């Protein structure tokens, strides 16, 4: 599923490396370097998962975890730490973390855990999304249309995933921008419109993506081209 992540990590090189690797899988991520900034960012933005380093400046990672976990509307928490003992893992989970990953880690495992955490909030959705002849596998990063493989850019993949997740519901341009881009995205940009246009072209005719005027975009059972 499309995932927007908050990376809470004070090691700048590692944080940048994680964000770069996530971007390769069409996962948008923001970075903060301390606990106070983490709580502020989580209160402002709609994140799906917080990748939380346990030992960070300011408000300690344990307290950040405890505060976020107390809110039933908070994002999932994947705690990240160099301490990998059983007691450390149990302690992190008892604080309210949803999962725990020790440093050093392999990026494929990190991405799989992030997607698994996000999928829990979409319990009615299967791992592979299908609608109107389009099949999207988020783990293999594959899209087929009527059995034909289609190559999509990262943002195109992320937007298509969001539309398929909605199961026929309308997704606003604002939601697409928030989920598929990061906090640096210009809210007045036409990136969403351009990406939708590119998706329609690559998925072929007749277009399965309809525009609901003044509302957003949808993949319905009988979608009309706009």
Can you describe this structure?
The relative contact order is 0.12. The chain has 8 helices and 11 strands. Helix content is 38%, strand content 19%. The protein is of the alpha/beta class. The longest helix is centred in the first third of the chain and has 13 residues, at 12-24.
Counting DSSP E segments of at least 2 residues, the number of strands comes to: 11
Distance between the termini: 26 Å
Q: Element order, helices and strands?
A: EHEHEHEHEHEEEEHHHEE
Q: Main sheet: which strands, in order across?
A: 2-1-3-4-5
Mind telling me the CATH class of the largest domain? Alpha Beta
Shape descriptor: elongated
Major sheet characteristics: 5 strands, parallel
Compute the average pLDDT.
Answer: 85
CATH architecture of the largest domain: 3-Layer(aba) Sandwich
Looking at the structure, the CATH topology of the largest domain is Rossmann fold
Helix content: 25-40%
Low-confidence stretches: none
Number of domains: 2
Note the total helix count.
8
Question: Could you give a short description of this structure?
Answer:
With 226 residues, this protein is α/β, with parallel strands linked by helices.
